[in-house]
Amino acid sequence: MVDLVVNKRPPKGLRARLRRALAALMEELGVGDKAVTVVLTGDRTLRRLKRAWWGEDEATDVLSFPHYEPGDPFFPPHLGDIWISLDTAARQAEARGVSLEDEVLELAAHGLWHLLGHDHQSEEEWVGFHRVQERIRTL
């Protein structure tokens, strides 16, 4: 189940596509019986969260907050929260020549992959992120 919290108005149609695509990706990844919350907001909120949790005073595109300790074999019913800045997503979409909708889908997939315990400290670890980010656009 995908819960959406909207603090900044997304483009028409984004909510439904995001719910549908993220739920389908979760099913493919074997966590379709779990829930996540996606918060669509702006740079100011992401900057505040990044400063509070990572000590970095800058906005970012996506942050993930798991509701369990990654690596724990027990996945709780609610995996965690994915916070996405629509401001940063819009700038990135324009720079890459993709739609805002596709950019947000990729950020949601990226956040979900983090909630499932993955990180990207090395090039090899990025492979999974790229795979789920590409896959969600087709769902």
Automatic annotation (TrEMBL):
It is found in: Cytoplasm. Zn(2+) binds at residues 110, 114, 120. One of its GO terms (biological process) is rRNA processing. Its EC number is 3.1.-.-. GO terms for molecular function: metalloendopeptidase activity; RNA endonuclease activity; zinc ion binding. SUPFAM superfamilies: Metalloproteases ('zincins'), catalytic domain. This is Endoribonuclease YbeY. The gene is ybeY.
